[in-house]
Amino acid sequence: MKKALIVYHSKTGTTRLLGEEIRDFFSKNQIESKAVSTKEFDHLDLVTSDFVLFGCWTKGLLICRQHPDKEWIDFIKNIPDLSGKKLGLFATYKIATGSMFNNMKKCLNGSSDNVLISLKSRNGHLSANNNQELLSFINK
Ligand SMILES: Cc1cc2nc3c(=O)[nH]c(=O)nc-3n(C[C@H](O)[C@H](O)[C@H](O)COP(=O)(O)O)c2cc1C
Fold it and tell me: Does ligand 1 have an atom closer than 6 angstroms to the CB of 19?
């Protein structure tokens, strides 16, 4: 059975909810999955996972200069080798994600080419469109 690891950084719970909905989507599609916060992250889960998704809330000036917040950047920069993993990013936001995903990718160093999905949600719930995106990610 394939495995998915979803790691979220959330301040007020919306990104956690999105991470948990992504986890449930994988489980429904026969992929063993686990959603954890950046603080709960366990390196062993990473090693054994085929799909790894990292999520953060959008920080910026609402319509421009969006970026992940410092805690997420510090977390992701210390993540070891991600080669061979199918990677995904997700973010929650209020107005616009703008440069959020590009800035998230920059933190992945050499692994940004492995990012096959950038999924966004305003309320933490998966839309029908998000479900389609995830399905094609699983099948890539
Ligand atoms: C300091 C701060 C800056 C934010 N900047 C943006 C922004 O630039 N664009 C946007 O759409 N939402 C912005 N937001 C809204 C959050 O990204 C949004 O509410 C997010 O879902 C919060 O996630 P969380 O509940 O997981 O903490 C900002 C929120 C805060 C507190």
Answer: no
Distance (Å) of CA 91 to CA 21, 68, 96, 108, 121: 13, 9, 10, 15, 7
| Cα(94) to centroid(ligand 1), Å | 6
Give 3-138's CATH code, choosing from 3.40.50.360, 3.30.390.10, 3.40.50.150, 3.40.640.10. 3.40.50.360
Centroid of ligand 1 to alpha carbon of 29 (angstroms): 30
pLDDT of residue 62: 84
Residue of the CA atom closest to atom 16 of ligand 1: 93
- Segments in the chain below pLDDT 70: none
| Residue 136, ligand 1, Cβ within 6 A | no
